[in-house]
Amino acid sequence: MKYLAAYALAWLGGTSHPTVEKLQEIIEAAGSDFDKAKASKLVEDLKDKSLEEVVAQGTAKLGSVSLSAGGAAATTTTTDAGKAKEEPKKEEEKEEKEEDIEGAMDLFGGDEW
C-alpha cells in the first residue's frame, strides 16, 4: 500500500510516470523500509496506464460490490408454537447530553487553548 501511496504522491507532485528511484526517495523520506522488488513490480504494472485510469477502474469495481454481500439476514423472534412474538416498542427518551471533553483537551496542550 505504501508503494501505491508513494506513486500517487509522486504523480500528484507532477511526475506522470514515477520511477523506482522516485518511489524510494518518497518512502525513505517517510522513514519506512524500501523493497526494490515491490516498487519495480508496481512501476512495471502501471507503466502504460495513467493514474486516473487506475482510479476509475478501481472505483468501478467498488461500485459493483453489493451492500448485502455481508449476509445480513432479517431476524424474527418466534415462540415455540411458531407464532411471531411481538416485542413492545420502547419509548426512547430524547435527552441531550452534554459531553465532557475537558480531559481530551490535554491531548492538545491543555490550558494552552
From TrEMBL:
The keyword Ribosomal protein applies. Pfam families: Ribosomal_60s (PF00428). GO terms for biological process: cytoplasmic translational elongation. Coiled coil: none annotated. Keywords: Ribonucleoprotein, Ribosomal protein. One of its GO terms (molecular function) is structural constituent of ribosome. Residues 69-81 have a biased composition (Low complexity). GO terms for cellular component: cytosolic large ribosomal subunit. Residues 82-92 have a biased composition (Basic and acidic residues). Residues 67-113 are annotated as: Disordered. Residues 93-113 have a biased composition (Acidic residues). HAMAP family: Ribosomal_L12_arch. PANTHER family: 60S ACIDIC RIBOSOMAL PROTEIN FAMILY MEMBER, LARGE RIBOSOMAL SUBUNIT PROTEIN P2. Belongs to the eukaryotic ribosomal protein P1/P2 family. This is 60S acidic ribosomal protein P2. It comes from Blepharisma stoltei.
